[in-house]
Amino acid sequence: MSLDNKNIRQMKLRTLLYIGIIGSVVTSTFSCTKLKEEFRGELEEGTSAIDPGALLVTAYNSLNTPYQQEQRWVMQEISTDAAMAPTRGGDWDDNGMHRAIHLHTWNADNGYMNNTFVSLGTAVYNAGVVVRSNPNAQQAAEARFIRALAMFDLLDLYGVVPFRQGPSLEDFKIAPDVLQPQAAIDFMVKELNEILSSLPANGPRAAYVANRNAARTLLMKIYLNKGAFLTRQTPTFAAEDMNKVVTLAKEITASGAYTVSAKGKYFDNFAPDNDEKSTENIYTLFNKNGERGGNVDRTWNTVAHYNLNPGGWNGWCTLSDYYDKFGATDERRGIYYDYPADTTSNRTKKFQRQNVGFFAGQQYNWSTNKPLMARNPSTAPLSFTREVTIRTSGATLETAGIRPMKYAFDYAVTGQRNNDWVVFRYSDVLLMQAEAVLRGGTGSAAEALDLVNKIRTNRGVTNFTTLTLDNLLDERARELYWEGWRRQDLIRFGKFLLAWQEKAADPDPKTLIYPIPSQQIAVNPNLKQNPGY
């Protein structure tokens, strides 16, 4: 059974008969740990008795872990000028892992890097199991998309892709192969082109199913970043690759499935009912209360102060220089967003205090409309400051740093929230198309400018009169903030090694790529450490 529009919500996220498969795969992707005996027996006897549909559910679910905020997102955003996880007194220290990532002083023993490596590898493996389980054409195509997406992230972060195929897919005594950048790129491009016709042509209403335009968007990202993957310090942009980016973008637009969200509707893309409201979302990770969740709650909890409604863990923030990229009329900076899941007096009594975007300055109780106070001391106003350092203490412990909250909180449920986690959006497609044109792809400067201004007009800001790589990078910062693309963008634009608040300029270009985790090198002799680590 394929994960089509009719059965995705029912089938995709149930407790699986194959729960043993999940547990065994997660712990053994890159090691020689034995598979559970019952699963090993099924593999040895063949796959005819295994339901490809159930395995496909496992493959989809395996993206949840690396895409939760503590893994891929930390490595893509906390390592940049967009986000910081300051140590607040005795909180948020985590043996210095957050600080190391922001300051670019990490090493091969960083726990976040190991966990992300393993989780992405698990997704690659689980998708590969589907491919060899005698699936139908659409099931195989969906699994191959999932595999390519996880491979893309591994290549981006670590520069190589451990990959089980053939005998090593069945026998964990055989170490996985390791694809180098060009081989990984060639494999992903071939896979994605081959599966296009077998994927469904879903739009935003079913963006949580691998679809043709999701595959096209991933191909765009591969072609656009290809030069950076091959030569990190001096990326090149071949005209042939940029032309492919432009062609793919035009194919996505020609599908007629997407439009840039209208003025005042930017946060529809991240709302609790974004699977019904968004006009932009191309690929998302499905969240449904009572079925699956975990990706979205942390976007609130990690930044919200204890006394906000609801309270969070008072952790992460952005930097003032990043916040200053947004003009006063820019909807993306923060608005009162009216949505049915908001059951507080902020909506019902029309207080209409800002509830999405960047939270700066004095905060208010959305039930009483009164100014909030900090927890300790309780007489201090809860006013988030522009100033923040990598270590905070004393009077600034609870208030340092502006807090981005992109996903509107789902008050209608407790526990797992209903906001689908956004991976690919149409605005990103247009921005990539414009960039490809500026880098020598088919099209004129005027066409590239028009693509970007389509977005700016709908965000409530004035149009650009000219488009340069610098103001395009800033527009990507505004449009895609905290969506997990900032590190990749800074590397591609040659800015990742520069100094920013709290971080000095990198003395060594080795930080353009993360180290291979020591734990993984210990169990896979085919893995070699990246230069400089």
Automatic annotation (TrEMBL):
It is found in: Cell outer membrane. The chain crosses the membrane at residues 12-30. Keywords: Cell outer membrane, Membrane, Signal, Transmembrane, Transmembrane helix. GO terms for cellular component: cell outer membrane. Residues 291-533 form the RagB/SusD domain. Coiled coil: none annotated. Pfam families: SusD_RagB. InterPro entries: SusD_RagB_dom, TPR-like_helical_dom_sf. Its main location: membrane. Belongs to the SusD family. This is Putative outer membrane starch-binding protein. It comes from Sphingobacterium detergens.
